[in-house]
Amino acid sequence: MCEPNLSVLSLQFLDNHCNRCALVSSSGQMLGAGAGDEIDQIGCVIRMNNAPTRGFEKDVGSHTNVRVVSHTTVPLLVKKERYYFKQSADTTYVFWGPYRNMREDGGGIIFNVLLKLALRYPTVKMYVVTRDKIQYCDSVFQNETGKNRYGLGLLSQLRFQGPTIAIRNIARPGSPEPNLHCHCCF
Fold first, then answer.
1. Domains, the chain, ranges and CATH?
2. What is the pTM (predicted TM-score) of this model?
3. Could you give the CA distance from residue 134 to residue 76 in angstroms, rounded to a whole number?
């Protein structure tokens, strides 16, 4: 099995193991749930994209260990970069997207933005999902839904791809099975 996530600056692989995790999406369905304390008590909290916590702590908690970010959300993080990369410096960021945007040869527009951010915030842990792992997640999508991800709308792709990357690559890296102790909060 290929290594899942490569550091933006150091080209090192992410080694993160969670015994229990909470996967919290950016869905508004969590509003009013009052699950914040329960989420914060779990050892590994994984959030999706730019899901806010400030002002919503009662419902979604405040702690974030890992933030899985789609290439389409990177510009939104850049708009609030001090919040995401300075104040939340203890969060590990895992970015994913199509190869054309994530290329490391200077041609990947999103990778180039991430490289600038990594240089500006050298203590922040930033990783990109490798091309091999994206292809693996595409095959999982195809097997689970019976559909080719590229024929669907972007929203359908994002709803499946981000959580798949989080559960299959972060909760138990290299394992074909998701972490059975991962609480998904959508």
1. 5-185 (3.90.1480.20)
2. 0.76
3. 22
